[in-house]
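User: Fold this, then the next.

Assistant: Folding the first:
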Amino acid sequence: MLLIPRKSHWLALIILLLPILAQAWQPDRSYRLTILHTNDQHGHFWPNAQGEYGLAAQKTLMDTQRYDAQSKGSGVLILSGGDVNTGVPESDLLDAEPDIRGMNLVGYDAMALGNHEFDKPLSVLQKQQKWAKFPFLSANIYAKSSGQRLFKPWAVFTRMGLKVAVIGLTTPDTLRIANPANMATIEIRDPVTETEKAVAELRASVKPDVIILLTHMGHYDDGQHGSNAPGDVELARSLPPGTVNLIVGGHSHDAVCMEKENVSVKNYQPGQPCQPDRQNGVWIVQAKEWGKFVGRGDFTFRNGELALDSYQLIPVNLKHKIKNADGSESWLTWQQEIPPNPAMMKLLTPFQKRAEAKLDVPVGSSDGVFVGERDKVRFEQTNLGQLILRAQMAATKADFAVMSGGGIRTSLPQGAISWRDVLQVQPFSNQVVSVTLTGNQLLTYLATVANIKTDAGGFAQFANISLVADGSDVSEVKINGEPLQQDKTYRMATNSFNATGGDGYPRIDNLAGYTNTGLRDADVLRGWVSQHSPLKVSDYAPGEGIVHLTAEQKQQRDSAPEKPRKRSYPKTVLAWILPHAVEN
């Protein structure tokens, strides 16, 4: 007779066996794990004009690195730190389908959801999830209506006997910097709290040996995140020691290679050694942007501890310019050139050809470069900011214009300018809008936007306005060279993203004087370039009209003794007090 234990007996048996089931690894045995990673691809599935990066070369490199690691007995995971969307017109026009299908062929195991995954409606993201053969992860994004997680929070992999959990996290800044219309139903919770919650759930269920946080939160040296939401450094410091083993990050577009404790290498060059950051016992890695590098970390797991054996950032056909003896210039790869994978080329070429026909259209020309690089438009006024805003002022007949520097994605080249070039500068399809404000309203508005710190997407680009910003307020405001009058009205041009509160700007779309032109920002810029070509960069120099005081300068200004004012009296008063003074 077969004896079948009661349900309660089964449960008791399972509880007794849990400690045995939990420890899949054997004591005193070494397990090897290799992490290959990229982040912030932003539509760069195809190589650039110099033949740099692109998924075809990345596929070749990933295969080589994976086979090398596996030949040494290492289990391999391929991870992406998110932001597959937005940046290259060929990809934007096709909702990043070539990128995602290319990532399938590379063999990605998981991707964190980045803020730019929300540039388009959620229906597009849902379509992308169906294309992907790997999960999009985020443990801290919830639906407002249900209070339930909106996406898969983690994925668990078994590699060479190790159970590895990968938890996704998305920056809370997404609520501020993504299209507000697409975020109305979404809640993004605190990453630290959600990490602790996810780890507790995992340890109570699957009991992983290694826990990796796959984040899109940014790396900021020593946790100095400025106006941005806290990133990976703060996250690692805030977690109890031993909570997680590794953070694979994205969002800040950094090559995370440390010069010394809490100081990263500036202007990292391909081929240089790379030591990842380590905070509170947690390694932190990030591989620049656009698939320019593949990060490779080789780890050894032994008796419950994960140790880093080696780490490198491998360039994907990155090149530098040299001058030849005859005065001509050539591009040379930093390391041995990586051939494109034929299967990837076969997959991607039709996507590239389909988009090229729409994009290779001449628009105009320029006698120099209009600067739109990330390390410029988020730190200072640029000529490209002037160009864009003057176009928007003309379209709205505005007195002045403002926009967040993060809305400018790249530079306009010297020479011929194509429709592709324009769309790369402004890929978000925002609309050009305007609003009428009193001088008093404008002062309140400027006190917020002009004081957004550098190195943030919200750092403001201005046109036809000058001011002094001191960190909390503004002074010496002039519109078109004339001092601001508080009772006068002014017309301001901007884009629909900033108007609806994007990048932390005050909302103005609910004001009576608000007008949406219905014109896409890229179309407005295209029209201006066409009408004013050949463009002269000297005509768009930003000047010195926007001044940001340091804390020290503000203190010196506030503590300076007030200059004595020379008294003046109307002549009628003088005639009454001193009759002869008026005659003299």
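Now the next one, as you asked:
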Amino acid sequence: MLSFKNLQTKLYVTYSLVLIVIALIISTPMYVYLKNNIETNLKENVDKLVSGYSNSLDVYSTINNNVTTQLYINRDNSSYTAVQYLSSIAYLKNTSPTETLQSEKAIQNSLYLNAAVYQTIHRINLFTSKGDFYSTNEADVDIMQTILANDGFKNVQAAKGSSLLNFSEKDRWLSRDSEAVFSFLRQISWDSHPVGFLEIQFKASDLLHVEELDSKHDKQIMILQAGQVLYSTTPLPTETSSHKLSAILNKVGIASAGNGFMTNEQGIDEFFMYQTSEKTGITIVAIIPKSQLFAPLLLFRNVTIISVLLLIAISVFVYFILAKILTHPLKKLKKAIDSINLGETNQAFIENKFHMGEIEIINRSFLALNQRLQDSLEETVQFRTLQMQAKFDVLQAHINPHFLFNMLGVITVLSDRGQQKAVSDTSRKLSQFLRYSISSGSSITTVSEELEFAQHYLDLLKSRYQHRLHYDIEVPEWLLNIQIPKLMIQPIIENAIQHGLSDSDKQLKIQIIGKIIGNKWEIRISDNGVGFDPASLETLKHNIQGYLERIQNNQTLNEPISIGGMGLVNTIARLQLMFKEQYQFSFGNNEDCGAYVCFHGYIKL
């Protein structure tokens, strides 16, 4: 880990920060400028799309008006128009079959002529409310039923000659499936009397360019007429539709064209652009998710960021190499000093890669210094090792003797009562307890053996305190083979019992819980006793910390341990002497009542 106090880090950080500042100064204005241009272009593309649809609708509206005009003004050899013929069929009751046939033929010819002139028209229909139907394409449905079932014809009558745009998923005049169509529908009158209806159909695919919409899966096109959704490329729930319409119609009421942002019911930000035709009053709306619309902008941003970061990374790496070369002699000097250890057989020296005379002088000084240190360190380390071992032996043998007297008293009482089996069990457990605690074998044991020893101890105490003492041991099988210092758990239990049974009316409960969390093991000993006094707890923590610091610093400890919490101090001190930094501990009061002591250690892989 680099330290900000060394020269290499200062050089490296200084040049890196200068580079980053320069890169930001250059790239930020450039990015903002290009970002604005790209954003403008993206919005212009949407505007072209909306304008294109609106213009296409205007063209079809013009065709609709032209066809209507032709039906009113174009006369045949009899100087009659198609509308006049339709009027005669609709109102004249005494028309002869020949005249009716002539009228129908004239109407049909007029429709075919207009269809030939405007080939973008899918179908032209001219029909009456009585069911007289004339069309440029076939129709195989019940004409009257279709007219009566369509509410759109009522709206057309209310429009009084104005055209209304309709959308249908299929041609209503065909029973079989067909393409979706848009229809301009208007009422035809003659001499101020309505005589029928004119419908001009266009294929929806010709108006909306379906192949383009398919490539934009999330793009939505809406066609609004009189504030209502006439068509939408995406079916919308009523709530979502109302939400979008309210946001859009508020804009439409202010201007005939515009754009804005809104958030839909799913919490997705969307961009919308609309344009209302002055000719038809129909509004075209394009709605695109903001993330999709600005996807090219996001790509440009990401590429820019990656490019700048890559440039910075390369430059920082170069600066790192340069700083490393400049500080190489100083690092080698530190490495040579750190390499001087007890028992070192090779002489420490500084690698002189750049053949500097100053390094050679330092090397000669190191040879003499290393020899002197070896002689001195051997004596010092040997003394410290013997001293620490002596401390460990004293700590391990420090067991409170009053326990033995209490157990002998229990055995005496049981014997007087004639409970020979209880005397035998208690004596056997006491023997195993003493054998384990004073054995001169290894100072390291397993969790399994330590728990067995602790359980013997608790059973012995339970024979004395009966119902006033209760304990639970919950340790998973995977934890039983973990190696721990000998006599680590029992002293904590001893402290808990000494302080927890002060209240004669309360049952003392002791829990020993073991866990494995990641690469660590944990053993927690807790009770429901009186807990630590707050003042004593702080004093205990302070004294333990000071004592451990003195051990870590190899300071001479001639006086015995005299601070409170003897069992806890004993265990923590032995952990420190044996395992250095490979353990952690904590202790304190539970939230409800009682105290706890918790030990953590690392699992050796």
